[in-house]
């Protein structure tokens, strides 16, 4: 499911922001206090004087005599797309966010400020969070998929895609980011507080969002509602089995570059690339989608920042604490078409006796509200039980119950995921975190770490869809 | 009569009876509304309600309880079983739970318990939809190419007489196998399955139409596990 990570590409320029003494949150508060004392007194003007004097308009059209700036800004700030990095040290919101997330002091405030700048606010990848978000997405999706593979080794691929989207997709990450107490800037710009999430509602920017390919027949799939096989979803589509929509090709050279790449990196773009609304009209589905995307990318970027400055173990525990700990009702992700047939196929594959439906108990057969309890037996073993108002309904429910009991088998909470091997090792072996979701990962390590046992993974799909 | 006088409603009736002169019409009215219970049915009702208590209440207290320690009785209320409790048969070979319950499942597996927690033999439980169950229909897995050709010929010659079910019975195979081997022509499908239903559907009124739609939606909800 996961593809190879290319971490060095994502974080090369980021290490320029050196973690050090002046950038720790406490120091930032002190420096901002100093700044506040050193700042020249803001020019206040009473209403009577405002009437007499001519209003002074800045280059952005703001009347600074009526709306005086809260802090002294360097010249030409409002022409910049995002706030300057050093202003991160003066933002109380950023320090509060740093403390609220219990981030390590190794993570400088400048990096945290950069995670809040969406690609739609600042198109320059040296200043926006797209590289960090890409890195964070790969880390989150890797940990989520290995957790599902080991803890629910028999999940069908469709359900696994849905479970991944329910745990690590844009919607849950949006909710996680909102639960961190992020406030949104009304509009991006150089003058906004660096502690606010900045994204543009006018120009949905392009950011690298993950691995995958744009299919050549994507238009026909959308138009004719073609069926996509599960295998092709694994190969072509993104980590949640969603179709990757093509980029709007603006120039032909852009298209040529895209074809040249061939690395399966796709770009994320809103469904409506040319919005027909003004930035003040909030609350439409498009703005909600843009907001969700920006919040999710921020959450991913924070994980990327944790990985960059604190390493693999810290990033894993951060993902565990914020993403994997959330509850997801896996039972409700299932929908069946022919449950009795599927159960018969399962019993044939596993060489069990064929399933037989038996009536366990009933009440009120001739009444208006009868209840039948039906059990599905394979030989003498009961596989599932269901109750319904008709015999047929009860039998279907019993078959579905048996299938869910099969698919949702779990070896227990204590099962070790492949990345636990890296923690068991005392030294070295840092680069191998990408691949192993199968048993092969464990077998090489087995001699050294007696605590590791290869995970049980089911042989595959019951029904090829 | 002394016993009925203690009930307030009965007293009202008695008052009516004494005050109004024309009481001859009232008693049959009241007696119609009252439930009658004969001696035989009362005994039967009582017997059916006489369910023995759960075995956990009947089991003898262990020897340690005589020394003063408490006994734990685990008797939860009946509820739908959870899908996260994997049946013994579905546990993989490597699972420690399989080893823990192996002996129990090997030696007492043909006996289950009913709602009153009494032991019941599994084979004595009635099966439902026997004709559709793959276990009870014996299958002939040695059909030759000639058999399949014959099956095709029969089905195409007279699809009404040689229905899928009849052919499955005749050749001793499953219905699914017959449908895999041969499909009746489109005109037969339209004549048997589409046209009569379409004609019947034309006659449906709004209530029936809505009821059918709701039934369909209920089935979809059932398949999604929502009801």
Automatic annotation (TrEMBL), chain A:
<feature type="compositionally biased region" description="Gly residues">
    <location>
        <begin position="426"/>
        <end position="445"/>
    </location>
</feature>
<keyword id="KW-0687">Ribonucleoprotein</keyword>
<comment type="similarity">
    <text>Belongs to the ribonuclease III family. Mitochondrion-specific ribosomal protein mL44 subfamily.</text>
</comment>
<feature type="region of interest" description="Disordered">
    <location>
        <begin position="422"/>
        <end position="465"/>
    </location>
</feature>
<dbReference type="GO" id="GO:0006396">
    <property type="term" value="P:RNA processing"/>
</dbReference>
<dbReference type="InterPro" id="IPR000999">
    <property type="entry name" value="RNase_III_dom"/>
</dbReference>
<feature type="domain" description="RNase III">
    <location>
        <begin position="94"/>
        <end position="182"/>
    </location>
</feature>
<feature type="region of interest" description="Disordered">
    <location>
        <begin position="50"/>
        <end position="78"/>
    </location>
</feature>
<feature type="domain" description="DRBM">
    <location>
        <begin position="338"/>
        <end position="408"/>
    </location>
</feature>
<dbReference type="InterPro" id="IPR044443">
    <property type="entry name" value="Ribosomal_mL44_DSRM_fung"/>
</dbReference>
<keyword id="KW-0694">RNA-binding</keyword>
<dbReference type="GO" id="GO:0003735">
    <property type="term" value="F:structural constituent of ribosome"/>
</dbReference>
<dbReference type="InterPro" id="IPR044444">
    <property type="entry name" value="Ribosomal_mL44_DSRM_metazoa"/>
</dbReference>
<dbReference type="GO" id="GO:0003725">
    <property type="term" value="F:double-stranded RNA binding"/>
</dbReference>
<dbReference type="InterPro" id="IPR036389">
    <property type="entry name" value="RNase_III_sf"/>
</dbReference>
<dbReference type="GO" id="GO:0004525">
    <property type="term" value="F:ribonuclease III activity"/>
</dbReference>
<protein>
    <recommendedName>
        <fullName>Large ribosomal subunit protein mL44</fullName>
    </recommendedName>
</protein>
<keyword id="KW-0496">Mitochondrion</keyword>
<keyword id="KW-0689">Ribosomal protein</keyword>
<dbReference type="InterPro" id="IPR014720">
    <property type="entry name" value="dsRBD_dom"/>
</dbReference>
<dbReference type="Pfam" id="PF22892">
    <property type="entry name" value="DSRM_MRPL44"/>
</dbReference>
<dbReference type="GO" id="GO:0005739">
    <property type="term" value="C:mitochondrion"/>
</dbReference>
UniProtKB/TrEMBL annotation, chain B:
<dbReference type="GO" id="GO:0005762">
    <property type="term" value="C:mitochondrial large ribosomal subunit"/>
</dbReference>
<feature type="compositionally biased region" description="Polar residues">
    <location>
        <begin position="57"/>
        <end position="68"/>
    </location>
</feature>
<dbReference type="InterPro" id="IPR024388">
    <property type="entry name" value="Ribosomal_mL58"/>
</dbReference>
<dbReference type="GO" id="GO:0003735">
    <property type="term" value="F:structural constituent of ribosome"/>
</dbReference>
<feature type="region of interest" description="Disordered">
    <location>
        <begin position="24"/>
        <end position="68"/>
    </location>
</feature>
<feature type="region of interest" description="Disordered">
    <location>
        <begin position="196"/>
        <end position="215"/>
    </location>
</feature>
<dbReference type="Pfam" id="PF12824">
    <property type="entry name" value="MRP-L20"/>
</dbReference>
<protein>
    <submittedName>
        <fullName>Podospora anserina S mat+ genomic DNA chromosome 2, supercontig 2</fullName>
    </submittedName>
</protein>
């Amino acid at each position: 499911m996961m593809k190879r990570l290319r971490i060095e590409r994502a974080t090369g320029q980021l290490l320029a922001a050196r973690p050090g003494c002046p950038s720790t949150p406490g120091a930032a508060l002190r420096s901002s206090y100093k700044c506040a004392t050193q700042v020249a007194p803001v020019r206040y003007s009473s209403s009577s004087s405002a009437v007499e004097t001519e209003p002074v308009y800045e280059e952005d059209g703001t009347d600074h005599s009526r709306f005086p700036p809260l802090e002294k800004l360097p010249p030409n700030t409002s022409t910049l797309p995002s706030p300057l990095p050093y202003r991160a040290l003066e933002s109380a919101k950023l320090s509060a966010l740093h403390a609220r997330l219990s981030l390590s002091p190794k993570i400088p405030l400048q990096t945290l400020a950069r995670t809040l700048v969406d690609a739609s606010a600042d198109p320059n990848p040296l200043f926006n969070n797209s590289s960090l978000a890409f890195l964070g997405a790969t880390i989150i999706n890797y940990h989520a998929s290995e957790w599902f593979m080991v803890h629910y080794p028999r999940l069908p691929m469709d359900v696994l895609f849905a479970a991944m989207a329910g745990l690590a997709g844009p919607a849950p990450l949006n909710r996680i980011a909102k639960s961190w107490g992020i406030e949104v800037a009304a509009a991006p710009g150089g003058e906004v507080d660096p502690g606010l999430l900045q994204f543009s509602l006018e120009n949905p920017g392009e950011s690298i969002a993950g691995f995958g390919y744009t299919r050549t027949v994507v238009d026909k799939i959308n138009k004719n509602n073609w069926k996509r096989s599960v295998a092709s979803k694994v190969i072509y589509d993104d980590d949640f089995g969603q179709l990757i929509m093509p980029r709007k090709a603006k120039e032909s050279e852009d298209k040529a570059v895209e074809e040249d790449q061939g690395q399966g990196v796709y770009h994320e773009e809103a469904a409506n690339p040319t919005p027909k609304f003004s930035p003040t009209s909030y609350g439409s589905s498009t703005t909600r989608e843009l907001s969700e995307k920006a919040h999710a990318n921020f959450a991913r970027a924070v994980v990327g920042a944790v990985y960059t400055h604190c390493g693999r173990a810290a990033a894993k525990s951060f993902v565990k604490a914020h993403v994997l700990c959330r509850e997801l009702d896996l039972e409700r992700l299932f929908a069946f078409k022919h449950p009795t047939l599927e159960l018969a196929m399962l019993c044939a594959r596993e060489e069990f006796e064929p399933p037989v439906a038996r009536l366990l108990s009933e009440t009120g057969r001739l009444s208006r509200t009868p209840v039948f309890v039906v059990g599905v037996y394979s030989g003498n073993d009961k596989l599932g039980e269901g109750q319904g108002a008709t015999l047929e309904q009860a039998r279907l429910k019993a078959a579905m119950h048996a299938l869910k009991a099969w698919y949702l088998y779990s070896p227990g909470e204590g099962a070790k995921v492949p990345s636990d091997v890296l923690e068991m090792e005392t030294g070295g072996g840092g680069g191998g975190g990408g691949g192993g979701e199968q048993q092969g990962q464990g077998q090489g390590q087995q001699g050294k770490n007696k605590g590791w046992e290869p995970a049980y993974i089911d042989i595959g799909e019951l029904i090829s869809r | 009569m002394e016993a009925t006088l203690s009930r307030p409603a009965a007293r009202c009736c008695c008052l009516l009876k004494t005050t109004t002169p024309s009481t001859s019409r009232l008693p049959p009215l009241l007696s119609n509304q009252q439930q009658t219970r004969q001696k035989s049915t009362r005994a039967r009702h009582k017997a059916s309600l006489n369910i023995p208590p759960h075995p956990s209440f009947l089991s003898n207290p262990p020897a340690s309880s005589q020394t003063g320690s408490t006994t734990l009785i685990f008797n939860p209320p009946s509820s739908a079983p959870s899908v996260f409790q994997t049946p013994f048969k579905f546990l993989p070979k490597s699972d420690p739970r399989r080893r823990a319950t192996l002996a129990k499942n090997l030696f007492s597996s043909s006996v289950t318990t009913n709602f009153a927690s009494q032991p019941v033999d599994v084979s004595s439980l009635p099966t439902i939809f026997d004709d559709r169950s793959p276990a009870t229909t014996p299958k002939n897995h040695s059909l030759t190419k000639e058999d399949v050709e014959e099956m095709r010929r029969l089905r195409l010659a007279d699809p009404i007489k040689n229905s899928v079910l009849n052919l499955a019975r005749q050749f001793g195979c499953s219905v699914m196998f017959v449908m895999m081997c041969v499909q009746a022509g489109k005109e037969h499908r339209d004549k048997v399955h589409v046209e009569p239903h379409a004609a019947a559907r034309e006659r449906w009124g709004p209530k029936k139409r809505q009821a059918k739609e709701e039934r369909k939606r209920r089935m979809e909800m059932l398949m999604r596990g929502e009801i």
